Amino acid sequence: MTFELQASLRSRNFEMSLSLKDGETVAILGPNGAGKSTLLGVIAGLLRPDSGSARIGDKELFNLDGGTHLWSPPHLRGTALLAQEALLFPHLNALDNVAFGPRSAGASTAAARETAHHWLEEVDAANLAKRKPAQLSGGQAQRVAVARALAAEPELLLLDEPMAALDIHAAPLLRRVLKRVLQDRKAIIVTHDVLDAYMLADRVIVVEKGHITEVGATRQVLERPRSHFAAGLAGLNLVTGTITEDGITTPDGRVFAGHHDSGWSPSPGQAGVAAFPPSSVSVFLGDVHGSPRNSFPVTITDLEPHGDQIRVRAGDSAQALSADITPAASADLGLVPGMDVRFVVKSALVSVYPA
Questions:
Q1: Which of 213, 218, 273, 326 lies 20 to 30 A from 226 at CA?
Q2: How large is the average pLDDT for residues 256-263?
């Protein structure tokens, strides 16, 4: 059964339309305040949009168009929402927390507990069955919360940054658990972590300012981004403009030479992007001569450690660019914020593709 939604919420400048195929996991990426949690709230029935509709297969979750006012309450939607915090019932042990969903649906105590045992085993938490939430670590509690959500047999699982509150040791275990239990299951996961998208999602949707700005297969979006947010998440510089025979020209007239991706014939004048990693960018104090390169003046906005390198950030937010250089090179050049320099990148290291 497919999931389909289109909804508008004017007070939050929110308007989105999306669909999921049966067994598909989609990652929702975007900056803070982009509308990711609003999307999950609308699907789960916690927020009511001004207009729109949603359905899972033949079952309508809501329909507010054309004078219709169908609105299913959250507990009848066939969805389950897993938040950053586990939110387990503090007075129940782990087993009874997981059994709560089946019991609410009318299962007997014995049947509900049998289901709960099954899902605790599925998330590697069977040994935690008798513990109260106060006796669980953050990672343990979140695994129990996953089991509780799945025990309710949701047709669509919603995950709102489930790893955000976990430490660096608990997050990898939960990620492996989710990779196993989400297989062949419809799910939407909101995340800031590119590793979550790579490991868990079949497809990525980028959301910015309440609207969808990019959609595609996970690797396609993260390796050939078309939005500045996705490029930043993937660790790439991204420059937008119009296609030329040799690369692209930006709206302010800068020319970026690069190699066109194979498999398509560029049409001069069409919208395109140029992408290149910060590690491919060199920083110079003056003009550069020699082999054909892209060379352009920038003003440094920030310097920050990045692994064993220094990341040099330059430009405004709309066309921000970065270069990774060694600490020694940064010291030799005397780089400081506000300084005017030149960023240089060889054309062979710039990938150009349609926007």
A1: 326
A2: 75
Structure tokens at 52: 């729109």
pLDDT attached to residue 335:
93
237-354 CATH = 2.40.50.100
Instruction: Output the CA torsion 292→294→295→301 (10° steps).
Output: -150
Closest CA to 322 of 276, 291, 355: 276
Q: What is the mean pLDDT of residues 279-308?
A: 84
More confident residue, 47 or 258: 47
Q: Residue by residue, what is the 3-state secondary structure of 199-238?
A: HHCCEEEEEECCEEEEEEEHHHHHHCCCCHHHHHHHCCEE
Nearest to 172 by CA among 204, 139, 150: 139
When pLDDT is averaged across residues 21-34 and rounded to a whole number, the result is 94
Residue 173's nearest CA partner among 194, 152, 144, 149 is 144
At residue 228 the predicted structure's pLDDT band, cuts being 50, 70 and 90, is confident
Task: Give the pTM.
Answer: 0.81
* 30 within 8 A of 191, measured Cβ to Cβ: no
DSSP assignment letter at 41? H
φ, ψ of residue 353 to 5 degrees: the values are -150, 165
How many helical (H) and strand (E) elements, i.e. helices and strands, does the chain have? 9, 22
* Pick from 307, 200, 298: nearest CA to 254: 298
How open is the CA angle 186-235-142, to the nearest 5 degrees? 40
Give residue limits of the domains in the chain.
Answer: 3-223, 237-354
In the chain, pLDDT over 90 holds for what percent of residues? Answer: 59
Beta strand 203-208 with 187-190 is: unpaired
Say if residues 214 and 227 touch (Cβ distance below 8 Å): yes
